[in-house]
Amino acid sequence: MLHTISGFDRIGEENAFAVLARATALSAAGKDIINLGIGQPDFRTPDHIVEAAIKALRDGHHGYTPATGLLATREAVARRTLTTTGVEVSPESIVILPGGKPTMYAAIVMFGEPGAEILYPDPGFPIYRSMIEYTGATPVPVPVREENGFAFSADETLSLITPRTRLLILNSPANPTGGVTPRAEIEKLVKGLADHPDVAILSDEIYDVMTYDGEEHCSLLTFPELRDRLIVLNGWSKTWAMTGWRMGWSIWPDQLTDKIRKLAVNCWSCVNAPSQFAGIAAIDGPQDDVAAMMAAFDRRRRVVVEGLNVLPGVTCATPKGAFYAFPNISGTGWKAKKLASALLEEAGVALIGGPDFGILGEGYVRLSYANSEDNIRKALARMDGFLRSSAAA
Fold it and tell me: What's the pLDDT at 40?
């Protein structure tokens, strides 16, 4: 018998990949599946980005890169950060990583241990809680409620901080809800955090450009009073349709930069050079494809919200960010995960049950509109037929 550490008995998963695997298996068996479960843009990476990677390969960029990323890549991220937030950050504070999850992992293992508490959004990205439990720290859910437009409440968040709190994780625009927390609420939170100077903050801003209806993303970088304890997570996956490139970046306070560098050396060594050259091209090149992708997401969002709100027993708040809807299905009489499973197996529609995103996710499902408008309409029709027939039965 091999004896692994107890942390592996606590580690969780991201069920979207399990649903994707099941949907793929059903498709291979001949069933027509419309996948609204996976959170990745259905667009190709723009051609100029692909060509930059090809050129890097042809130019001989085949070796190791610095553990924190090529200086040119970090400088590109610094330029982009200045453009989007108005905040100047040093390339020395920036780390290039293989996707967004390594930043979550790094931040949580830096602060998580038995006896510590880490606050995280619920419903929220499932890896937050999974990694907190892995470290032995106590996960403390910060409720993200429909009645608040799926924004976090500053007062409720602050009320959950104790002397044992080491790290607070925030996410706006949010996965899975599509919620965007307004600046006024963030300002209120920041003001309250002044009373808790030893609490670090991880702000997951991977969906920063994906807002609608005049909403604006408010980066925590714009609050200098947090800078010495703020970690910002971002990356290329969503904005430039680069999920498979595994390209993320994060911005770290000075006191943690050497710690994240050492963790990179021990865990992933470095990010491959061609992808980093592609990342520079994404930031510095034309943004027409990004604008077109966002316009398409906005059109689909409207179709999704309209379609969901006419389904029997379903209501759906209009998401203000990302590319997810989080409809309330409590009126159907179904438990969320059972409904998601039945829709996949019987109706050929893949989506994710709300409890996969936290203990407060019951009564909801997550639907990604990173699929074609035609497929979304077909999926809604299938859901409608299933719910009406199942209700009748």
Answer: 86
